Amino acid sequence: MRVYGGCIEPGGYELENERVTAPCPDCGKPARHHHFERAEGSLNRYHTIDCDHCGHESGYDFLMP
Question: Which pTM does this prediction carry?
């Protein structure tokens, strides 16, 4: 996704959205890591982790009010 705004580069800015498989911080088995950016008044970077092996989930604090 490309975002535009008064404080962003004139040609816009491509938001990062990358998914990779990397070790789970709890069990060490393969887990889904998602690195992404959101334009929420400023550009904010996030990193979530989901492991199907042990159920570890982290990085979803931004969804909480």
Answer: 0.78
Work out whether the CA dihedral 24, 54, 56, 48 comes out positive or negative: positive
* Domain hosting residue 42, numbered range: 18-63
What is the dihedral angle through the alpha carbons of 25, 28, 32, 33, rounded to the nearest 10 degrees? 40
| Phi, psi for residue 4 in degrees, rounded to 5 | -130, 155
Q: For 14-44, write each residue's pLDDT tens digit.
A: 889 999 999 999 999 999 999 999 888 778 9
Residue 3 counted as domain residue: no
List b or e across 25-45, with b for residues whose CB sees 16 or more CB atoms inside 10 angstroms.
Answer: eeeeeebebeeebbeeeeeee
How many Å apart are CA 43 and CA 46, to the nearest integer?
A: 10
CATH of the domain at 28: 2.20.25
